[in-house]
Amino acid sequence: MNHPVRVQALKYGGHPYRHWSASLRQKVGPLIILEAAFEQTVSHKFLGTIPQGTLSTEYYWTDRWFSIFRLARQHDRQLICFYCNVNTPAEFDGSTLRFVDLDVDLLVMPDLSCHVLDADELESNAQRYNYPPDLVRSAHQALAELHHLARTRQFPFNEIEMNPKPSHADDLDR
């Protein structure tokens, strides 16, 4: 299974935020795994420069309020970090995957240390754009779940080696 997918990250209210091309690697139940490479060099305020060609294995769920990106160096597939977006559950029609980015992120390093990014943006945007209380609550719960998954080395945080492949099909359904 390896066909093209267009990823569309939206902001609250359906406003376009980012988009990129990826390939569908696997779909199992609510889990969708995509493969992508950075199409251009990106400057990130916490990660510094992310070179063009950096590999991204992207884990999305249609029933979870987050997505997880395993970033790896192009030349040896060595893990750089896991970049976790708190977002609405993914919507996937077979060719386009969409989600609403909810501002706060979690950076998980190879040693599984965790760093919350942009928590202030979630709070300020929740007030500015009048996010419903349930949306804010879901974002906070998603952040707590991501912390738990990383701390307990659950899928996909058990995929630290160079060429990640899901260990067990059961892991994909969680």
From TrEMBL:
Task: Return one GO MF term.
Answer: hydrolase activity
Domain DUF402 positions: 51-153
What top-level branch of life does the organism fall under? Bacteria
Kindly indicate whether the keyword Hydrolase belongs to this entry: yes
Keywords for this protein: Hydrolase
Gene3D superfamilies attached here? FomD-like
Name the chain's protein.
Uncharacterized domain/protein associated with RNAses G and E
